[in-house]
């Protein structure tokens, strides 16, 4: 199987994956920790994570594909955050969202690898592919396949490329010899991510309290953002990279030239006030095939309003005033807060 594995690794590199590792389909050892995380309510409003099906599938990969014999773990890099220019009303977007939506890119490449597996076997094999879309414990399985260790900030980190990469998986019925797991925790005594997080969402057990995480509030949450959270969001319009930016291992992150996810022209967001004036049609066109569509236009406007309140510049008030009489209670609530904050 080693020649096949090396052939697959080479093909994966051709398709843009920076790492390719192999592991078994055994149940993950850290499932009890995930179940305890759910029991403590750390998933916040992401109720789908606590569903019985979600828990059952994550406990054992064979429930996703009964015939699975091996799991192929892959990593695809994306460019680290660009240097922010400090424009007066600049907004920030998580680095992974600066390019095309990875859901539009990665799965097709995974299926191309599946075709190579079929060719080797001489028949159509059973496969499942996932790129942040399946109920599996991604970081543990990737670490078990040798792709890195789970860092203090809960991200998977590889010593050669840091943590700015997507994880993707192929579950296949073809049995492949497993690679050795990544055997070292290289965070050591470093605590920079914990110290830098403005909301204190990084827990001692290397999990995240979603109810405090900026990424959760600006991406996953629907409805108004609680007042005690708004001020800590800073300039983040979508997601957050703070814990990755301060990580010493990300000093050697892949460049933009090494990633299929090239930044789009409309980033970074240089003027959050002007962004609030986009019509629905303009918003749809601007974020076509962009991860920012996940928030919906209401969520995007909500985040912009909160960021304008945090920036605190009086010239933004004329952009906020229309939202103070908006029939949408979420936008009105946030706009009232932002104007009051700007006025001191």
Description:
It is a single chain. It is built from 14 helices and eight strands. With 344 residues, it is of the alpha+beta class. It has two domains: 2-78 and 99-172, no CATH class; 192-343, no CATH class. The chain has a four-stranded antiparallel beta sheet, sandwiched between helices. It has a two-stranded parallel ribbon with strand order 3-8. Strand 5 and strand 6 (156-157) form a beta hairpin. The longest helix is centred in the N-terminal third of the chain and has 16 residues, at 106-121. The model has no long low-confidence stretch (mean pLDDT 94).
Note the total helix count: 14
Give the termini separation: 67 Å
- Give the % helix: 25-40%
> How much β-strand is present in the residues?
5-15%
Indicate the topology.
Blueprint: H1 2-14, E1 19-24, H2 31-39, H3 52-59, E2 70-77, E3 92-93, H4 106-121, E4 127-130, H5 138-144, E5 149-150, E6 156-157, E7 165-172, H6 192-196, H7 214-220, H8 227-230, E8 236-238, H9 242-245, H10 272-275, H11 280-286, H12 296-311, H13 317-320, H14 329-343
Parallel strand pairs: 3-8
Antiparallel strand pairs: 1-2, 2-7, 4-7, 5-6
In short:
This protein is an alpha+beta fold.
Give the key terms:
8 strands; 10% strand; two-stranded parallel ribbon; 2 domains; four-stranded antiparallel β-sheet; alpha+beta; 344 residues
């Amino acid at each position: 199987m080693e020649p096949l594995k090396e052939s697959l690794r080479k093909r994966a590199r051709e398709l843009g994956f920076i790492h390719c590792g192999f592991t078994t389909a055994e149940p993950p050892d850290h499932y009890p920790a995930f179940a305890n995380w759910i029991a403590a309510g750390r998933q916040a409003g992401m109720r789908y994570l606590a569903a019985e099906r979600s828990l059952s599938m994550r406990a054992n990969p064979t429930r996703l594909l009964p015939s699975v014999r091996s799991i192929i773990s892959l990593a695809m890099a994306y460019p680290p955050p660009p240097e922010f220019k400090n424009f007066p009303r600049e907004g920030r977007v998580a680095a992974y969202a600066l390019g095309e939506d990875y859901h539009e890119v990665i799965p097709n490449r995974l299926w191309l690898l599946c075709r190579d597996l079929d060719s080797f076997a001489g028949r159509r094999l059973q496969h499942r592919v996932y790129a942040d879309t399946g109920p599996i414990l991604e970081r543990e399985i990737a670490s078990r396949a040798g792709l890195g260790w789970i860092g203090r900030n809960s991200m998977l980190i590889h010593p050669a490329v840091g943590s700015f990469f997507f994880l993707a998986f192929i579950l296949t019925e073809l049995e492949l010899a497993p690679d050795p797991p990544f055997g070292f925790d290289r965070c050591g005594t470093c605590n920079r991510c914990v110290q830098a997080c403005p909301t204190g969402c990084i827990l001692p057990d290397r999990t995240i309290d979603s109810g405090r995480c900026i990424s959760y509030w600006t991406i996953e949450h629907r409805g108004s953002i609680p007042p005690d959270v708004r001020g800590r969001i800073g300039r983040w319009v979508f997601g957050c990279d703070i814990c990755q930016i301060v990580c010493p291992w990300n000093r050697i992150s892949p460049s933009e030239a090494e990633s299929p996810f090239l930044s789009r022209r409309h980033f970074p967001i240089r003027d959050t006030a002007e962004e609030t004036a986009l019509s629905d049609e303009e918003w749809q066109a601007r974020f076509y095939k962009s991860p920012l569509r996940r928030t919906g236009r209401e969520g995007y406007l909500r985040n912009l309003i909160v960021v304008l309140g945090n920036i605190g510049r009086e010239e933004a008030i004329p952009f906020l005033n229309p939202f103070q009489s908006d029939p949408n209670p979420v936008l009105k609530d946030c706009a009232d807060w932002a104007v009051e904050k700007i006025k001191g």
